Request: fold
Amino acid sequence: MNIKLIRNSENSVFSSIDNGLVLQMVDDNYKFLDFNGKRLYVLNSSTNEKYEIAPGVKKYLIADISYAHRNHDYLFFTSAELLTEHKAEIIIYRFLIDDNSCDIVYRFEKDVNEGSITGDDIIKIFTFDKNFFIIEEIGQDGVFKNILLYDITAGKNINLEGSLAEKYGIYKIVSLEGNNCVIKYGASREFKENSQEIRNKKEIIGIINTNQFVSEMMLNPREITMEELESSDDVITFPYIKRSENRIIYSKFNMETMSEEIVLYDFENKVKQVRINTDVLEKADISYTYIINDNPYSLKKTDKHIYIVNLNTQKVEFKFPNECDIKFIKNDFVVITRLRHKIPLFKKGSDYIEVYKLPDIHHALFKKKATYNECIINGEDLLIFTF
Reply:
């Protein structure tokens, strides 16, 4: 893996588009209600060249946009306009990277005094390819208010009546390989809430083929092919889910016993492992897990150290002093930040970014004096962005 440092990245947020291409989002100097304007750029990480996406269009981060495919040659973003004192129009744009074309693909109206416009609700957009996406509105209680699947080419909504998406809403999608992705139906529940209404909410985790998913939604949304991994009951919730290497990792949390099962599913070989974490007092204690050299590890913090624990053996294999901050773990690469002093206690220290390749935690593979902003994987490159 190549390590690349990209300096002076402003106060930006980065995400991977395709090998060598990165989306950069930075604040602009205009607003819409409580939303700051944004500028979007396509950055070539190989040449450090970039160009702005549709500079004449005002952009706002009104929706949470997810992509079913890790590599994609298209981007979606949102804009908005006030129609009246009490009514606004949300506009969804699609940008095609190959020809730099940018088109309005969907519009819908919202009351300015309701929901997502005031920040109380969440609008989510799930893209399955450049022609199909789902729009969902989720309320403060985690229950979706409205959901639809839109066909851009045909210019029409697809009826989702009777589908799991229509019953429970979609919480998250995570890209896998090819046309496959993980889908989670239903919102995670707060541990402290014990009401019957909260307990009766349903959560389902499964793997779908995106092309098949869209086709079946168009034909019969009640019958969708899915490899179901887990479903909740009265006391089980799934607080987080992510991908690490060839594993899907998710938390299966029991709200009565306050215990957690960490589930690791090898989606290539269809093998499931379960590890137990009983030391949970509150939501922040839930263990976040990583795959390092094909083994599951979790981070544990104490007053003196940050421990990296092998979940197969329950033994500490690596530790860093607690003045370090672990920012990123990918396979056997660990990115940390720390404050270093040339003369201890006499001068203000300097920020350093260090990269270690496990199991060697004593000799940094990469070390730079810089202030950390963000870190992402793009193709075979580990990109570290600094302020």
